[in-house]
Amino acid sequence: MIPEVGHFALIIALCIALIQVTVPLWGAWRGNLAAMSLAPRLALGQLLFVGFSFACLALSFLQDDFSVQVVANNSNSLLPPIYKFSALWGNHEGSLLLWVLILSLWSSAVALCSRQLPLPVLARVLAVMGGVAVGFLSFSLFTSNPFARLLPGTPADGSDLNPLLQDPGLIIHPPLLYMGYVGFSVAFAFAIAALLGGRLDASWARWSRPWTNVAWAFLSLGIMLGSWWAYYELGWGGWWFWDPVENASFMPWLAGTALVHSLAVTEKRGLFKSWTVLLAIFAFSLSLLGTFLVRSGVLTSVHAFATDPERGLFILIFLAIVVGGSLVLYALRAPAVSSRVSFQWVSRESLLLVNNVVFLVATLTVLFGTLFPLIVDALGLGKVSVGPPYFNAVFVPLMALLAPFMGLGPVSRWKQDSTARWRTQLWGAALAAVICGVTLPLLQAPYNIWVALAVLLAAWLAVGLGRDLWLRVRSGNTLAAGLRRLTPSYLGMLLAHLGFAACILGVVVTSQYTVEHDLKMRPGDMRAVAGYEFHFDELAPVRGPNFVADEARFTVTRDGREVARLAPQKRRYLASGQVMTEAAIDPGLFRDLFVAMGEPVGAEGAWAIRLHYKPMVRWMWLGAILMALGAFTTLFDRRYRRQRRALPAAPEVLARGV
Amino acid sequence: MASRLKLFLPLFLFALLALFLFRGLSLDPKEMPSALIDRPLPAFSLPRLDGEGEVTQSDVVGQVSLLNVWATWCVSCRVEHPYLQQLADAGVPIIGLNYKDEDAAALDWLGELGDPYRVNIADRQGSLGLDLGVYGAPETYLLDAQGVIRYRHVGVVDERVWQGVLQPLYRELLAAGGAP
Hints:
The complex is a heterodimer.
Chain A: H1 2-30, H2 33-62, H3 69-74, H4 81-86, H5 92-113, H6 119-143, H7 168-197, H8 202-233, H9 244-269, H10 273-296, H11 309-333, H12 348-378, H13 388-408, H14 419-439, H15 449-474, H16 479-484, H17 488-513, E1 515-521, E2 526-529, E3 532-543, E4 547-558, E5 561-566, E6 569-573, E7 579-582, E8 584-586, E9 591-601, E10 606-615, H18 618-633, H19 638-644, H20 651-655
Antiparallel strand pairs in A: 1-10, 2-3, 3-4, 4-5, 4-6, 6-7, 8-9, 9-10
Chain B: H1 2-6, H2 9-25, E1 45-47, E2 54-56, H3 57-60, E3 65-70, H4 75-89, E4 94-99, H5 103-113, E5 119-123, H6 127-132, E6 139-143, E7 149-154, H7 159-175
Parallel strand pairs in B: 3-4, 4-5
Antiparallel strand pairs in B: 1-2, 3-6, 6-7
């Protein structure tokens, strides 16, 4: 009964979405107040019904209702309850419902937080989001009904959740990622609403900026969690694979990064308007493209969902309508003449333009690499795969190119600056960066030129930002007064840029200094890796709630003192018989120690054991967290709170930094 | 006017991309050219499940047959089992590959549910499975009389799969000259 009620609620949600896309749009066109003011209520109603439907499916999972197909295929009575719940989005149908739920959450947030937006704008924005909801709700209902029953033929027990997904990281990874993906629909809706209304100005950019920042923050966290999960769960210490599904989440992030910066220019200076609108469309289109790539089976990937060409066709048609439609609208309505506002080449605008170009090129190279196998196959030229060598070769230089300009950006002035001022401002930072770059890698022999370069770039960013922060704080009479002068926007930028510096360091240091040993070890053996002694104490059988495992118990010592006890496992899950490697990690700010079990070797209890020493691997995830924190911080800026009170932003606020 | 036309460029690029994506839908990236189709069964020497000596690849070739990968931990294999029994009763030779399983459990299973297999290979470590590139149980390979793999089916063999896919190929191979 519960699944049928949930199914019915989903149908009602679709009906509401259909009204949401038509009536407010008509109202905005004809100036009908009643029709326009219906939009927020419809958005909330949609959330109510989608949320109810989601709760019904969750209940079916928690109650082990194996007559429901997705429950039977993805859950098991032995599964711990928290995984029964997260199994909901461990499959195509359920994750699509999560997608729709998050979309309705975003719509409702827009409806609630933007009561003071001009009503026609709000009506158009919510109508566009309603249109996206119509697409995804019908996708769910017509091709991937999560409530489909297995009647008759209900199995006695479910075939269990994929053991790879039975992990705390995977409980929150998809929701965060979808918050990011779907969050770009808000920026997209604002852009389309602006094109429809014909008002593409600074206030449009100011309205969509906080939403874009939040979506970008969630996406950063989601990608970070995915990478972290791959690191400890896949059992061989990798953290980024340039897999099509990873790229599918990374491309919207790259485009979103460009959008976040481009919106700043549009808000502050009224420049790049058409460009910013195009980026907003582009970022959300890449989210949709990601959905298509993951669910249609056109590319092979380690974590694609069970795929079906019919579903692929549905999303492709939807993609064509949404992206094609908005690009037609863009071509017809975007201002063709360039802005009257001008800027000099030596200015903050130019530096942000560099950011945009670099991130756009990065997005396109990742897009090209991801789709290349498909294009070659479609042209009948054979089967190829594009691996990490291509992506690293094009992506790493782009990011390295970005860093020098990033150091200049925050200290430069809008409209016109001078290279002489930059020199006086930054010679100290440059000197400090060179000293750091030359000396710090000496701590670890042999001297590594790539690490030196990474330290140079990271120090350039960090010292430049630190100096700027110090100058701003000092300009107040007291320390407290100085700190109060810092706007949340500025602090957010500071955190995000420091996060980027941390990422550069983490990625390069880990890639260069990691020590990996694949060894044959039997209980009683000891091996030394990077100054740590790994003692294999014993091998023991262990029983978990839904698996049996061999556990290798290790004690790690350094200079005779115990550092950590590690117990990696080789698990066999009972329901599916799948074998899983559970790595054991001793985390640290400056180094991770990583042990994973391979296969048993020979008859005497020996195992292939993988021992890793990974320095500073956490820095890239900490960096991503800093970036996300930075983006969240910008929300507290006064000008966004004013916006809710519908007062025009005061000029002195606008005059301050990004 | 020219600047207006420029704004159509993104649309044009997207249309091109959509065309490729559409073409991609009808291609199967998992269809690996390197699979063992039309290649002989890999060489192996493994114990028989019933404990009566060893089996090698030469013991199982000589006639058109099915090689079925199964295990007691595999729920779908239990679903598939009655249909395999039907096929065996109808005279289709089926060789079992007991994949990463415990012998005792596997023998109990055959005792309880019936034994459709001519012979069962006990692949306890999954080494033959690795050579074959088994994704998971159940999988069924169609071998011709020379022991060359002609088709691979991933998943449960049922009435639909047999009638629609395997039987036509099986008949064709028989006609080509392999005694049943």
